[in-house]
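> forwarded from #structure-qc
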C-alpha cells in the first residue's frame, strides 16, 4: 500500500523500544528490531543516516557530561544498542525511525528476588554504575512484573536501562 505525501508527514507519536539490529557506521544507516513494530508493520524499522547522525551527536554530547563520563562509553552506535524511537511511514509505506535515542545500559547483580506470592515487596539489585551516575548506594528496586517470565536468582548478573 502506497501512502501520499500528506500521510507520510504525519507521525505516530507512539514511542517504541528496540535494539539496533544492524548499523553501517561508514554509511550511517541501520535497522532496528522491535517486537511491536514487527507485529504492526511486518518488518524491521529503517533508520536513515540523518537519524543515526543525530543519535551519535546526542551520544557524544552526553559523554562529555561529568555524570555520564566513562572510559568504556562507546562513541558511536553499535549493533545490539538499545534505542527508543518513534515511527513515520516512508512514501512507499515502510516504517522509518525518527527521534532515535540510544538508551544507556547499566549492569548489576540481584541481591533479593521479587517475592512472587505477595506482589508488594520488590526485589533489589545493586549496580556500581547506578551509584556513580545517580549517587547513593546503587540499589534499584526490581518488580516481578519487570522480570516477565524470567526467574532471577540471588547473584544473577543483569543488564537494564
Amino acid at each position: 500500500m502506497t501512502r501520499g505525501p500528506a500521510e507520510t508527514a504525519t507521525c505516530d507519536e507512539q514511542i517504541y523500544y528496540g535494539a539496533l539490529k544492524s548499523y553501517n557506521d561508514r554509511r550511517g544507516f541501520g535497522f532496528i528490531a522491535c517486537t511491536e513494530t514487527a507485529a504492526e508493520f511486518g518488518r524491521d524499522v529503517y533508520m536513515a543516516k540523518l537519524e543515526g547522525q543525530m543519535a551519535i551527536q546526542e551520544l557524544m554530547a552526553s559523554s562529555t557530561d561529568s555524570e555520564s563520563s566513562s572510559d568504556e562509553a562507546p562513541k558511536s552506535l553499535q549493533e545490539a544498542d538499545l534505542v527508543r524511537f518513534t515511527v513515520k511511514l516512508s512514501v512507499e509505506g515502510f516504517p522509518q525511525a525518527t527521534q532515535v535515542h540510544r538508551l544507556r545500559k547499566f549492569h548489576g547483580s540481584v541481591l533479593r528476588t521479587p517475592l512472587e506470592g505477595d506482589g508488594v515487596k520488590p526485589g533489589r539489585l545493586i549496580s556500581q554504575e547506578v551509584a556513580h551516575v545517580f549517587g547513593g548506594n546503587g540499589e534499584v528496586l526490581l518488580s516481578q512484573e519487570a522480570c516477565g517470565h524470567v526467574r532471577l536468582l540471588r547473584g544473577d548478573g543483569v543488564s537494564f536501562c
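QC bot note: The first helix runs from residue 5 to 9. The chain has five helices and nine strands.
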